[in-house]
Amino acid sequence: MGHRHGMSLVAAIATLLAAMPLASIFRSWTWLLYGVIVIVVVSGSATLARVLRAAPGLQVLAMMAALLLILTWMFPSGGEIARLIPTLDTFQHFNNLLALAGQQVRTSAVPVPDLEGLLLLATVGIGLVAVLIDLAAVGIRRPALAGLPMLAIYSVPVAVLPDGVSFLSFAATAAGFLWLLVSDNVDRVRRFGRRFSSDGRDIEIWEPSPLAAAGRRLGVIAIALAVLVPFAVPTMNSTILSTFGPPGGPGPGGPAGEGLVTSVDMTALLSDNLTLDETVEMVIVRTDDPQPYYLRLGTAERLDESGFHSELPSAGRSIDRPVPSRPNAASVAGTFTAQIEVVGLSLPLAPFYTQLESVSGLDGAWLFDMDTEQLFSGQRNINGSKYTVRYSRLDYSPEELRGAPPIASSDVGARALSQAPANDYVAELVTRLTAGLDTQYDQVRALYDYFNPDNGFRYSLSTVEGDSGSPIVDFLENKRGFCVQYAAALAWLVRAAGYPARVAFGFTRGTGRDGVYSLTNRNLHAWTEVYFPSFGWVPFDATPGASVPGSTRTAWAPDIERNSNNPVLPNTPATPAPRPDQDPDEEEILPGTGATDDGPAIEAWHVAVGVGVLALLALLLAPSLQRRALRRRRRSRNAPLIALDPAPPGQEDLVTDPAAMTQAQRDAHNAWAELLDTMIDYGVLVNPAETPRATASRLVTTPEFSSSGHASSALLAHAEERARYAPAPVRVTNLDEAVREARRAFAENATRLQQLSAALFPRSVLMRWRLAWYEFVATTSRRVGQVRDIVLLVPLRRRR
Cα–Cα distances in Å, from 767 out to 623, 670, 681, 772, 776? Predict the structure, then answer.
């Protein structure tokens, strides 16, 4: 039973390694703590059931019961009893949380915060995988079947991450699965007895067999193909969720096959990031624009009873081609350039400034949709990218917008974006606010001015749900919300008035100086865009500016708080006041700008790359360095002679001094071991059953060994035989030269590739590492089993 308990521990660790890819989905490590608790409880209940000699079916029941109890304790539904004992309310609570998790899966952008529904979903998944792995590896002794639940949990981050999982996550899962297979193989051999080769030689438990070697080669080839084949298929989608993207084929903006993208819920992105307790830098902008407006990220145009919904286009125009300009009656304030560096935003969307003219620094996988004004990709993630955009900033005046012509009846797209769900409350409010106003701009301004704090509107990240059954009515009555609610409400009212409107998402101006702006999660923002014929989409930001860091006001959409106690001047950013502990004369260095007085600063990624390169070089050179160190330790302490021919039998210089005999024997053994390691390095078979004389005779007929080394191998064999079997060893003072001559004899007949392999990756060192690892795992498993037996068997003996 002790060995099976050891396999249970290995199964638990393999489950934890298989769950490590989930770290890419969650923003913190709370899920890992929950997962460790569940794995320990499931594994402990399985071990207890096996101590009681329960059948595999009863072991599964014990694990499921333990999983239910620990979930009840971790996700309680009510009072103290409900925290310990599952009740009907517990199952109803779990059902509600899982339903909430389904909604959060559809609306949340990775990495997600610690949402209770998603935490329950992840914990239940890890627990069920732990049950299946323990059943397959320990209960029915079929560890290969454990790969299926491990693959299931590994596929979750693969499906939701645009760039897939990291290599370390893949390596962790693979290591867990291989550990299961190796531990089961060792356990089976230990149960069966001792192993023997075909010629009767005793084989250690961890010594590889030819069949195992062939299996390892096939495994290495399979893993190499699995890693390299996706790189050879550039059109492969990054996630399977791309299948559930927007419907429709390619549009006029781009060729077929360029529209496979994932969905992003911009409302959830803003809600999750704005409510974070910490401030996270996401984008760094360097621009020559003295008054940049908002940095655009996405668009929400589809409107139903529940609100506006963001959708990525089904096709677009590759940015390798110039962005065509559209005629616009607005005045151009200037053409500017901005360098955008994304440092903390993992999305298939790229932020940019409106009126885009060109993009450099991104490849052809990024597409631009002219209608929704979104820069997106179905194969790339913008995080870590650094690119440059050229754009024009437009200025509008109330007089110019009042002169905008009416929407043409033939403009089907604009008419479609003017539709809103029928709502009596909204219709009555729009009619009252726009009464007596003739032009589109005056009506839009009346709706925009309605969100004045004098009318009771307040900025709040925590919204209050109403009982009207309509989100727009709830917000207009409660008058509490953040930028998403304000932007969506104004766009809804504008559509109800009969004009095209949509919601735009992105970043406010942020904080900075000298053209360098740091944009954090606090600068994530949403605003309204209204379409004016001849002018295009004009921005209106109805959110109270004093509550939004970096908020900007314009001449055509001035500050709606101008009559409040905390006004924001038009055309100026509404940035927070300086910190109380900050010196007014102190210059603030923005994070990520690298601004120092000593010249260009070394950024963190430079250090990371340097450390990574040094670590890789150290890893590659480690076998060669260890081989050289071992060779130096084996050198004889006597000065070498020139002649290599051994003296005739009976005329050798024998060592009779007891103090010198030990050193002479050690020198002979070290020289012979060095010859055997050289044979292994060059791929020559070493047979431990052979005598030194037989090995030297075989080397004479070996084609890999040049004739120039025959004398040296004979000398080394003669010295080793005398050291092993004779009462007194022979005094040979030229062993080091004989070893070097033998090494040169192997190199003469070897190819260049064999020489490099023997020098950089000596097989003798790699074999020692492998055997040392096997021995470490065996010793660790044995000691863990001993501790486990003590813990489990002592109480039983006391009861007896």
Answer: 10, 18, 10, 8, 14
Mean pLDDT, the chain, rounded, equals: 78
Q: Quick check: 514 and 306 in contact, CB under 8 A?
A: no
Selection from 137, 185, 135 nearest residue 7 by Cα = 137
- Separation between Cα atoms, residue 341 and residue 361, nearest integer Å: 10
Whether 5 shows a pLDDT value over 50: the answer reads: yes
Q: How sure is the predictor about 650, in pLDDT bands with cuts at 50, 70 and 90?
A: very low
Write phi, then psi, for 599 (nearest 5 degrees). Answer: 100, -170
The CA–CA distances, whole Å, from 647 to 156, 653, 665 equal 72, 8, 18
Cis, peptide link before residue 549, omega less than 30° from 0 = no
799 CB-side CA count, 13 A: 5
pLDDT for position 123: 92
The span from the first CA to the last CA of the chain, in angstroms, equals 19
Structure tokens at 450: 């309605």
pLDDT of residue 79: 59
- pLDDT tens-digit profile of 364-404? 888 898 888 999 887 778 888 999 999 999 989 999 999 99
513 SS3 class: strand
According to the per-residue pLDDT averaged within each range, which of 453-467, 495-509, 705-719 is highest?
Answer: 495-509
376 within 8 A of 350, measured Cβ to Cβ: yes
Q: Single out the residue of 243, 233, 292, 236 nearest to residue 263, CA to CA.
A: 243
Q: Report the C-alpha gap between 129 and 127 in whole angstroms.
A: 5
Are 134 and 46 a contacting pair, CB within 8 Å?
yes
The rounded distance, in Å, linking the Cα atoms of 515 and 652 is 87
* Residue that is written with structure tokens 């096709």 in the block: 315
pLDDT at 462: 74
Q: Copy the structure tokens of residue 493.
A: 């009212």
Nearest CA among 181, 182, 187, 131 for reference residue 1:
187
Amino acid occupying residue 300? A
Please answer whether residues 742 and 678 qualify as being in contact, where contact means their C-beta atoms are separated by less than 8 angstroms.
yes
pTM confidence score: 0.46
Rg, the chain, Cα only:
37
Q: Look-up: residue for tokens 């329960």?
A: 54
Cα 89 to chain centroid distance, Å, stands at 37
> What is the spatial distance between Cα 629 and Cα 357, in angstroms, rounded to a whole number?
62
**Average pLDDT, stretch 762-783?**
88
pLDDT at 341 over 50: yes
Coil, helix or strand at residue 76: coil
Task: Give the residue from 628, 627, 609 showing the smallest Cα distance to 617.
Answer: 609
Which amino acid is located at 357 in the chain?
E
| Residue 304 burial (CB count, 10 A) | 9
CB-based contact 324:552 (threshold 8 Å): no
